[in-house]
Write a structure and sequence with these properties.
Number of domains: 1
Structural class: mainly beta
InterPro entries: KOW, Rib_uL2_dom2, Ribosomal_uL24, Ribosomal_uL24_CS, Ribosomal_uL24_KOW, Translation_prot_SH3-like_sf
Largest sheet: 5 strands, antiparallel
Pfam families: KOW, ribosomal_L24
GO cellular component, one term: ribosome
Low-confidence stretches: none
Mean pLDDT: 92
Radius of gyration: 15 Å
Order of helices and strands: EEEEEEE
Subunit structure: Part of the 50S ribosomal subunit.
Strand content: 35-45%
Keywords: Ribonucleoprotein, Ribosomal protein, RNA-binding, rRNA-binding
Length: 76
């Protein structure tokens, strides 16, 4: 397995996609999938069904993984 150059907490810049130019923090690293989850980028709405804890249900905004080729590490 190749060495991964990103760690949780690193500051990165999105270099491709809808969030191009955004600088944010890495929340999680997924080395097997070759992806990272970046705070506030690639947000999708997930529908939540009503449950006993959440009787209303509704929508949840969630960050989705971004391929590492679309992310560049920024020296702080």
């Amino acid at each position: 397995m190749a060495k991964f150059k990103f760690k949780k907490g690193d500051t990165v810049e999105i270099i491709a996609g809808d969030d191009r130019g955004t600088k944010a923090t890495v929340l999680a690293v997924l080395p097997k999938k070759n992806k990272v989850i970046v705070e506030g980028c690639k947000i999708v709405k997930k529908a939540i069904k009503p449950t006993e804890e959440n009787t209303k249900g509704g929508h949840l905004n969630k960050e989705m993984p971004i391929d590492v080729s679309n992310v560049r590490k920024v020296e702080a």
